[in-house]
Structure formats: structure tokens, C-alpha cells
Amino acid sequence: MIDIGLTKIALISVVALVVIGPERLPKVARMAGTLFGRAQRYINEVKSEVSREIELDELRKMQKEMQEAATSVEQTIAKNVSEMQAEVQEALSNPLMETPTPDQIHVKAKDFRRKKLARTSAIPSWYKKQSGRRTRVISGAARVAKYRPAGAGSKTSTSFHS
């Protein structure tokens, strides 16, 4: 902006006092002040309008980018849905699950028994005992008898004879 120092302002005021005169100088100074204030307000309004336009432009760009992103996501979802529908239709039109024949059922049952035998017999008995897996099932009464303390099994009464 204009670089005006104290000496320049004093020089301008002396020249204005000589040219305008002392009786009209206050009116001219007041009018110059109001005009200067109006000019400043106008400049500030223009600056704020320009900044609002810039912000609106940025918001419009952001809105356009978001709309493009939303449409691309929508297109991707629609594409995936159509692909899934095509796959489902294809799966329904080509029956892959046929009813098994009795021979196939027999082979599958045989394989199941073989796998079960391998699964149960492959574990050593010491590991089964250690992990708490029962190898033999015994009744509740047999368990009570097995784990009863040694002195509790016989009822011997000790009597004191005097």
C-alpha cells in the first residue's frame, strides 16, 4: 500500500490548511474521512465476496468429486450384484448335485468308517488317560467303590470295655 509517514501527513495537512483555509478544513477533513471509510468498507466487501466465491468454487469441486466417487461405487456394486446374479442363475441352471447311487453311498460310508478308525486308534491310550478321555466306561457305583478311601469301606466299631 502507500507508505505514508508522520512527516508526509504533516506536510499534506499544512498544504491543505494553506490551500483550503482554516474555516473549511474541518468539513473537508470529515468528508475525506467518510469517503476513505466508505472505500475501505467497499474494499472489504469485495474481498469477502471474492473469498466466498473461492470457497463456493472449492465446495462445488468437492461436491463433484464426491458425486463421481459415489457413482463409481454404485457402478461397482451394481456390477458385482449382476455378476453374482449371473453366477446364481448359472448354478441353478446346471444341477451339480445329483442324487448319489447306492454304490457311491457304500463307498462314502466305508471311507467314513476307515477315517473314524484311524482317528480313534491313532491316539495312544496313555494320552487318552492323560487328557481325560475315557477308554472304558464304568458305572457310578463302581466308580464310588474304586475311589472310596481305604478306611471308610469297613465298619468296625471300637468299643471301650471298662
Q: How many structurally independent domains?
A: 2
General shape? elongated
Roughly how many Å is the radius of gyration? 52 Å
Structural class: mainly alpha
* Beta-strand content estimate: under 5%
Give a quick set of tags describing it.
162 residues; mainly alpha; 2 domains; 5 helices
Written account of the structure:
The chain is mainly alpha-helical and 162 residues long. It has two domains: 6-93; 102-148. The chain has helices at 6-20, 25-93, 102-121, 125-131, 140-147. The mean pLDDT is 82.
Q: Helix and strand layout, with pairings?
A:
Layout: H1 6-20, H2 25-93, H3 102-121, H4 125-131, H5 140-147
Produce a short descriptive summary:
This protein has 162 residues and is mainly α. The chain is built from 5 helices and no strands.
